[in-house]
Amino acid sequence: MTTITGECFCGDIRYEIRGPLAPARSCHCSRCRKAFSGAGSAMSRVDPAAFAWTCGETLLRTYVNRDGIGLGFCGTCGTTLCGLSNGEVMGVTLGSLNGDPEVTIGQHIFVDSKAAWDEIGGNAPQFGAWPDSDRDGPGRGDR
Known about the structure:
Elements: E1 3-7, E2 14-18, E3 24-27, H1 30-36, E4 41-45, E5 51-55, E6 60-64, E7 69-74, E8 80-85, E9 88-93, E10 105-109
Parallel strand pairs: 3-10
Antiparallel strand pairs: 1-2, 2-5, 3-4, 4-9, 6-7, 7-8, 8-9
């Protein structure tokens, strides 16, 4: 079985995922730009049962919105590590992964609200908002 590891910038928080990652998404909405201080977010969904903190979980800080959706980040260095849904890790940031996790960006979402300076590369499909299959998903709304 594949084991994928990840950690924050300072290395105080570490995690592992047993099994492969799902194709990743890059979200270009204004909220992701602010949360990730960049062009947007790049995350891959994970099965919460396959995810485990291996070091430093007590240093994890969270921001959760009124819908129960949020982010987990290192309280020491500030690295965004994961996406949360109702208290469970539901995705990991690609930037926090170690080595080659053998995952690619499968889609770009909210490209209609991307920053003027953001130039999207690659061949992954682009969606102006949520893809049709995700219209009723968490975090929906004005982005």
